[in-house]
């Protein structure tokens, strides 16, 4: 079974909140416990500037095709079988910044 690390960018079938529609989109891996599931947050090209969003600075180096934002408040647990492919990985500086945003969300 493939394992993923915090900060990996993957292309997945991501469910909408109504669970009726699934869209192919990039997501960031937040947690892989080593079983068949991973915790991800969606990535979008639409600009968001809430306290739970992070603008990816080096989006090209991550394998993304447009300037993108991580919606850290929009998380889902998905089976790994829904991962289409790994696109890239955030660099260490951006991983640190994403962790800061997560701390602000969950440990205010």
From TrEMBL:
One of its GO terms (molecular function) is DNA binding. InterPro entries: PemK-like, Plasmid_toxin/cell-grow_inhib. This is Growth inhibitor. The lineage of its organism: Bacteria, Candidatus Schekmaniibacteriota.
